[in-house]
Amino acid sequence: MQYLDNYLESKGGYDYTNVKRNELMKAQGFKEMPFTKTGTTIVGVLFDGGVVMAADTRATAGSIVADKNCEKLHTLAPNIWAAGAGTAADLHHQCAHFNAKLKLQRLNLNRQSRVNEVITKLTSKLFPYRGHIGVALIIGGIDCNGPQLASVSPHGNYVYHPFQSMGSGSLAALGILEAKFQDGLTKQQAIDLAIEAIEAGIFHDMGSGSNVDVVAITKDGVDYKRNIRQYNAKSYQRQVPYDFPINNTPALKKYQFDIEKQELSEVGQEMVIIE
Amino acid sequence: MYIPVNDMLKHFKQDAPAMANITHKSDQWSPYHDNSGTVLAVGIPGAVIVAGDTRLSNGYNILSRDATKLSQLTDKCVLATAGQYADFIALRKFLQQRLQLYEFQNEVQASTETVAHLLSRELYSRRFFPYYTFNLLAGLDENNHGVVYGYDAIGSYDQMTYGVQGSGQELVVAVLDNQLKGYNKINKTIPQTREEILDIILDCFSCAAERDIHTGDNVEILIITAAGTERIVKPLRKD
After folding, report:
1. Interface pTM, i.e. ipTM
2. Which superkingdom (chain B) (predicted)?
3. Which positions in chain A touch B181 (Cβ < 8 Å)?
4. What contacts A164, CB < 8 A, 6 or more positions away?
């Protein structure tokens, strides 16, 4: 098998054959598929004895709100949660995949999952995809090494820091975090700080909005508060409700299907839509 | 069987792996910015109602929560513009000055029809470097009936009973088609009174603010009648 080793060695580390293929496809008229991004604000704050993570609940497709109340906090393990920003489909599938992978590992080893395991697995998966898997995650959890908070970028870079923010509203949130974070916060202080940071994202970044979700992880367990804050109720309710009486919509054609004879017949004339 | 390695290699040899010619198209500077937002206008016999949200945005950032998109040009007509705010200001300035000149020379304010034509000519004068504005001109005609003129960026215009422009246009126009014109209804019950129509307009803006990220903060409504102008401001979502 010597020739195989030599062949692989001369080929080099990266395989660029797909680059030529992509160029050819583009020349033939294939368009890159667009994807739904979440346009988000997510934060994580480390406190004395645990970690708090918070997220907004708006999912956007371009400039339209696709989901007014989606969930951006995902479980990876009973003691590790992830807040996700980026492409909605990628986030959902990757988090579900790693949740399952970690569970299998726990069943095999009979040990609690660790945060650095999650980070290693995630970054190993993301790096080869060169950032095309659009997940930007904040991973927080508590394990035998204490409470930990890290963020993972779509290219596979990771950073451990006592406070993090990701998403389109990350700069708005980071301003609040940089101003108000201190070491040795209590659980309630950390929750309040995280909520304030998400608030900044919700009101000052248009990619984020609606409500705030919070999860606090300590040795005693996980405290998940869905929609802990709801700021933006629908501003106006119509005085006279919309009236759509039945049989008021003109039909262009009417068909009748006789079940016994199994026949489809056209019944009734074409009604002209009056403008 | 012994296969010399070097002989084998020549069959597999590829071109040196070259990074694809990634021609980075340099982001060319564009003179246009979309400051977004939504405007709408509805004409009824005796009055015309013009509404616009007050949010000014740039990408994902909010530049102002309190910027008007409406401009009263004469006692009887109002210009409502969505698109680039700088071009709206420039257009407004031109129209205000030109209409003041008209009033001095003719000792009477320009009629809505005249203003509509003037706006169209001004927009077309910039055919090859357009005003990035999507306008609605709403006013009272000679019989004090409400009329709305809708424009594209280079001045093509048409008289309509109601019009919507801006980022929330697609969300709102279908609702108005159904409610104010009775599209897709056999028995059309079209609201006639000012209060009913105001109700629909407020609801439309509220719904547009729910689903369009560029619409929100406040909605400003001007109601023009022969007696004068009334202004209403209602809050919308701020997120």
Report:
1. 0.79
2. Eukaryota
3. 275
4. A43, A44, A138, A149, A150, A151
